[in-house]
Design a protein that fits this description.
heterodimer; A: 4-stranded antiparallel β-sheet; 23% strand; B: alpha+beta; 4-stranded antiparallel β-sheet; 8 helices
Chain lengths: 225, 419
């Protein structure tokens, strides 16, 4: 995957790039409007992350020109403004998603994956990891080709993990992904534990392996043990 | 009392007093003139009588018809006296005032007292007529003057009342500045100009204060995002000692808390600044239904019994705010409900009600909607959730009330009035 991060805040952009590069994605950085325009004119990207307020121009303008030239490229707006108007304008211009700062990198990664899936494979892509097969359009999970019955939260959790495999995900990121912004009780971490326990049990019951590793004090990591 | 009534009344009283005093003085003067006039006439008559006696050597008993003349013989010469008296006149059937002069005359060694009487009846009549017509004039004048003054003042004060009306209706949130048209009266124009510049400053200060909160919150988002994401990247590293993990997680938690407070403040100032203009007809029961299912596992995990009765409830509100409203009330109820407690959720055409069981608040329940109000030292709570609910209610012309009865906390969100 080739991703362009258009973000003027260097430290923030670097951590995004660091995180995304972990699973072999090619990730490039543009720190102002002009250099973003140059890069977009020359290279092809699977997904572009655009900040709205940029030195030298407006991110929305960037989306406009991008949409005219390369329709297949996924676009996610990352903005500190969290303004309803910007969100509507951005999505109207053809952006696929809108994420307001601050966000979890795991969340950003999951959104990028989802956008690319929709763009590239029209949603028909199958996410696989060893014996696990996940079909997002049908919300179907197969283990050793046998269907796995999951609750909505368990399915969301599994998809979130598979989009962020080999990475440590904090409980907080999981909680925000599952329940949204309004969740703020640490108790919810117990709920995550319960969901993960159930998910693990169901997967093991169909002969799957346990890829849900607990990382002490931090969260979980979906990886081969 | 209105200024106009007051000034008219004062004018009226002063006019009446002046007219009365004036009338009195006028009457007095007139009386005196008439009196002098009568005396002069009597003296002139006396001289005529003396002349007549001197030349004709007889008493002019029947010469002067106009006035009554009497002659009485007296022992000695009498001095001249002038006096007033009342005499009954048959023709008038009333006593009529007379003025009389008495003086002594001598004819053929005989002394006479001559009395000449002059009726004051006519002059009294004149005075009366003059006074009556004067009073009528005065009355008419007062009426006309008051009416003109009333109408004219009303017209003159119109710009003033326009300014007052503008001030009364001034809402710094809605109006920018009070502008009054030129009235042509320099005092009112000065007042209008002062108020215009004052409101301009007020609204300017208000807006800069509002945008300050918003800008400050915005500016904080990026550094917060950077810290948060740096920590996330850092945690990916395999070889962090466990005791440091704890510290890092604590930093991460605090950053999250900070960013939540920041987001909540930003939301509050955005609602205050009316930055949610796109209102729609939203069925709150659908939003509630969705949120209940989203939080179903939280409810189940806490062992809460949830009873809900959701009827269609159309509210004209921004969809994002509808979601925030429902989430905040619902999360609040779930959070403060003790384990195995009870939740009661209902909505209909007029209101939304979310109740949870729990013990009485320890602090003042009137403060529950205040910013940064916290019932306990719950570290995770921003203390802004209910303040946001209140602000949403204010911005949409709704009402939200808290009540506690029989171990049940109830939040009632009433939107019947906005219809």
């Amino acid at each position: 995957m080739k991703i362009l991060v258009v973000e003027d805040e260097k430290a923030l952009a670097e951590s995004i790039v660091d995180y995304l590069r972990k699973d072999g994605s090619v990730c490039e950085l543009a720190q102002d409007y002009h250099s973003a325009q140059l890069k977009l004119g020359v290279y092809e990207y699977d997904c572009v992350l655009v900040d709205i307020t940029l030195p030298g121009g407006n991110g929305l303008e960037l989306i406009r020109t991008l949409k005219q030239e390369k329709a297949s490229c996924g676009i996610i707006i990352i903005s500190a403004k969290n303004s309803v108007d910007d969100k509507i304008d951005g999505l109207d211009l053809g952006a696929d998603d809108y994420l307001s700062k601050p966000f979890n990198l795991a969340e950003l990664n999951a959104r990028i994956k989802s956008v690319i899936r929709r763009r590239k494979f029209e949603g028909n892509e199958v996410v696989t990891f060893n014996e696990i097969e996940l079909r997002p359009t049908e919300r179907l999970v197969l283990i050793h080709s046998k269907p796995l019955t999951l609750t909505r939260k368990e399915y969301d959790l599994l998809l979130f993990f598979m989009g962020n495999k080999e990475r440590i995900i904090t409980k907080e990121a999981i909680a925000e992904h599952l329940w949204g912004d309004y969740i703020d009780k640490l108790d919810s971490f117990d709920f995550i534990y319960t969901h993960i326990k159930n998910l693990r049990k169901k997967m093991l019951a169909l002969g799957g392996n346990d890829y849900l590793n607990t990382v002490y004090g931090i969260g979980y990591k979906f990886a081969e043990a | 009392m209105k200024l106009l009534t007051r000034s008219t009344l004062v004018l009226l009283i002063v006019t009446i007093v002046v007219f009365f005093l004036g009338g009195f003085v006028f009457y007095d003067q007139l009386n005196q003139i008439m009196d002098e006039e009568a005396i002069e006439a009597l003296i002139a008559r006396k001289e005529q009588v003396e002349e007549y006696i001197d030349s004709e050597n007889e008493l002019p008993e029947h010469v002067f018809f106009e006035d009554e003349i009497l002659f009485d013989s007296t022992a000695a010469n009498v001095p001249q006296t002038i006096s007033n008296l009342k005499v009954f006149v048959e023709a008038e059937d009333d006593s009529v005032p007379f003025k009389q002069i008495q003086f002594g005359v001598q004819l053929a060694e005989v002394h006479y007292r001559c009395t000449i009487r002059k009726s004051l009846f006519e002059s009294d009549d004149i005075i009366e007529t003059i006074l009556i017509s004067l009073s009528i004039i005065a009355l008419v004048l007062v009426v006309i003057f008051s009416a003109v003054n009333y109408i004219f003042s009303k017209m003159m004060w119109r710009p003033f009342f326009r300014i007052i009306k503008g001030l009364k209706e001034y809402d710094v949130d809605k109006h920018h500045v009070i502008k009054a048209a030129k009235s042509g009266t320099s005092e009112f124009d000065a007042m209008a100009a002062t108020i215009e510049s004052m409101t301009l400053k007020i609204s300017g200060d208000f807006n800069s204060l509002k945008s300050f909160t918003e800008n400050a919150s915005h500016e904080l988002q990026t550094p917060l995002a950077t810290i948060k994401n740096k920590i996330e990247v850092m945690l990916q590293s395999e070889n962090i000692p466990p005791q440091e993990v704890q510290q890092i997680m604590e930093i991460s938690r605090q950053v999250s808390r900070l960013s939540k407070i920041n987001k909540a403040l930003l939301l509050l100032s955005k609602i205050e600044n009316n930055q949610y203009p796109g209102k729609n007809e939203i069925d709150l029961s659908l939003v509630l239904d969705e949120k209940i299912s989203q939080y179903q596992d939280l409810i189940a995990m806490k062992g809460l019994t949830c009873r809900s009765s959701l009827k269609s409830s159309q509210v004209f509100i921004h969809p994002d705010l509808a979601e925030v409203l429902v989430s905040n009330l619902l999360m609040n109820a779930i959070r403060y409900c003790p384990e195995n407690g009870e939740l009661k959720i209902s909505c209909d055409q007029n209101h939304l009600e979310i109740a949870n069981s729990g013990s009485k608040l320890t602090s003042d329940e009137n403060q529950i909607f205040l910013r940064f109000y916290k019932e306990n030292t719950n570290e995770d709570s921003t203390g802004l959730g209910l303040a946001i609910v209140k602000q949403i209610a204010l911005a949409n012309g709704h009402e939200v009330k808290y009540s506690y009865m029989n171990n049940i906390h109830t939040f009632r969100y009433d939107f019947s009035k906005s219809r």
